[in-house]
Amino acid sequence: RPERLTLIVICVAVFAFLIFPIAIIFPISLTPTGIQFPPQSLDFQGYTRFFASADWLNALALSARVALFSTLLALPIGIAAAFGFVRSRLPGKKILSLLILAPLMIPHIIIALALFFFFKRIGLYDTEIGLVLGHTVLILPFVAIAVSSSLKGFDPVLETAAMTMGANWWQALWHVTLPVTWPGIVAGGLLAFITSFDELLVALFITGKLTQTIPKKMFGTALHEVDPMLSVVSSILILFSVAVGFAITAATSRTAPRP
Questions:
Q1: From CA 203, how far away is CA 65, in angstroms rounded?
Q2: What is the pLDDT of residues 183-192, one digit of tens each?
Q3: What is the pLDDT of residues 123-154, one digit of tens each?
Q4: Which residues contact 164 (CB under 8 A, 6 or more apart)?
Q5: What is the DSSP code string of 70-100?
Q6: For 5-48, how does the pLDDT look when each residue is reduced to its tens digit (9 = 90+)?
């Protein structure tokens, strides 16, 4: 029908508007100069230079390490917070919830400035540990929200049934609750990882010359020159983000196993 056809055309137009600026990065990264569109010729020299550059690979490795350790630190805290959100009846639960979710509401530049002054005072400025702690603050809400969503769909009667059959609370948690809520935990962890991996603003404030993540190195390079390497790195990060997005979709759409 005309209404349906009009809706399809509008959806396709909006989708193209959102995707086109990202999609052109890939052909640009395959040009000899790395800054030409439409490309006159295609080659993979930019990718060869990237994987042969120690500076870019070190920045990539640092971003991966920081994202990994930040996620590993945020997961247990976020899971515990999610249990508090869903199961706890403490009078101050709403206030604690707001504190956990505050990084989603407060502009990151304010958080970055606060972390800058705090880390300067305690000696964590321009350190990998400081970067991990700073990113943990930012990604903690994603874990808490994802796990809370899974817990809200979980029937506590299953835990009670397990404990009536001889299991203690920890055994019921490990063998019943966590397997059922595992999709939310995986999705929250992956979302936290990619958020930390792509984070720029906090890294700009709490790190100096000694600590260069891949987003910070891209930002610094773009300030001084139009480096052909930027399109190559952007393409790699886009592919990585898309892969993580598919992993999150697969985790959240998977049917939770029966305990």
A1: 14
A2: 888 888 888 9
A3: 888 889 999 999 999 999 999 988 888 887 77
A4: none
A5: HHHHHHHHHHHHHHHHHH---TTHHHHHHHH
A6: 889 899 988 988 888 877 788 877 777 665 666 767 677 787 88
Q: Tell me if 92 sits within 8 A of 122, measured CB to CB.
A: no
Between helix 128-152 and helix 54-87 the angle, nearest 10°, is 40
- What percent of the chain lies above the pLDDT cut of 70? 93
Burial class (CB in 10 A: 0-12, 13-18, 19+), 74: buried
Chain centroid, CA 217 distance in Å: 18
Task: DSSP for the chain, please give it.
Answer: -HHHHHHHHHHHHHHHHHHHHHHTHHHHHTSSSS--SS-SS--SHHHHHHHH-HHHHHHHHHHHHHHHHHHHHHHHHHHHHHHHHHH---TTHHHHHHHHHHHHHS-HHHHHHHHHHHHHHHT-TTSHHHHHHHHHHHHHHHHHHHHHHHHHTS-THHHHHHHHTT--HHHHIIIIIHHHHHHHHHHHHHHHHHHHHT--HHHHHH--SS---HHHHHHHHHHH---THHHHHHHHHHHHHHHHHHHHHHHHHSPPPP-
Token pair for 65: 């390490």
| Residue whose token pair is 């969503």 | 149
